Known about the structure:
The chain has helices spanning 85-90, 129-140, 162-171, 198-203, 218-231; strands at 7-19, 22-28, 41-45, 57-61, 72-78, 98-105, 119-124, 147-153, 175-181, 192-193, 211-216, 239-243. It is an alpha/beta fold and 247 residues long. The chain folds into two domains: 7-105, Elongation Factor Tu (Ef-tu), domain 3 (Beta Barrel); 119-243, 3-Layer(aba) Sandwich (Rossmann fold), CATH 3.40.50.80. It is globular. The two termini are 32 Å apart.
Amino acid sequence: MQQRPAQYKLRLVHVKTEAPNIKTFAFDTSGSGFKFTAGQYVKVVLDWVVGDPRGTQRDFSISSPATKSVEYVSITTTVEPNDSPFKNTLNTLKPGDYATVIGPFGRFTFQGLNDDVEVILIAGGIGITPFRSIILTELAGGSSRWIKLVYSAKTPESLVFRREFDELSVTHPNFKAYYTVTRPTTTEVSERVGRIDAEYVKSLTDSGGSVYYIAGPPAMVQDLSEQLTQKLSVDRERIRTEKFTGY
């Protein structure tokens, strides 16, 4: 008999605006027994949502490190004026409110990887969330593997967690972050301008045995997966993907 996923009634303890229209919601897990592996996701249930054709729950990648799972778990998501009733309700939550969290789920993790394998994390937009969890967890655990983050957003202001990644690049010689923007707000930007493509990825790694993780909008994930296999001859077994459909 298949085991039912665990459910937790968790109290919201913190809401942080990370960038324009992007927020992090952190829930207290102390004493709940909640645990997860970096890269996994949860279902968040808001029973009082009204008028949403997709119902009262959504999937969210966990953005907090697994090393802190006994203290809190966080999700990071876009909040737009034209969002669904579910997202609008989520955006009204205040510290002290409760939500049901189900999970964790998913296999978008580093489990099964050899310690000496270089990993290339490719993020588009809010697809950065599982990678923040993975990066913080790996580095806190003393991992010596090479981790390279290639992160694309529309504008420099939308590169959430950038300051954190830059600091980690300084304190951990085995981690490096690279940024690109597609709609710069000024002509003077320090980031590369343009979408992530196979040639750019190739310029960042000399390893033919790297493992690639891609997370972001479905079209981007599909296109980059095809570019890696067709232009860089990367075996599909070395490409792992997570598609963010938005709601």
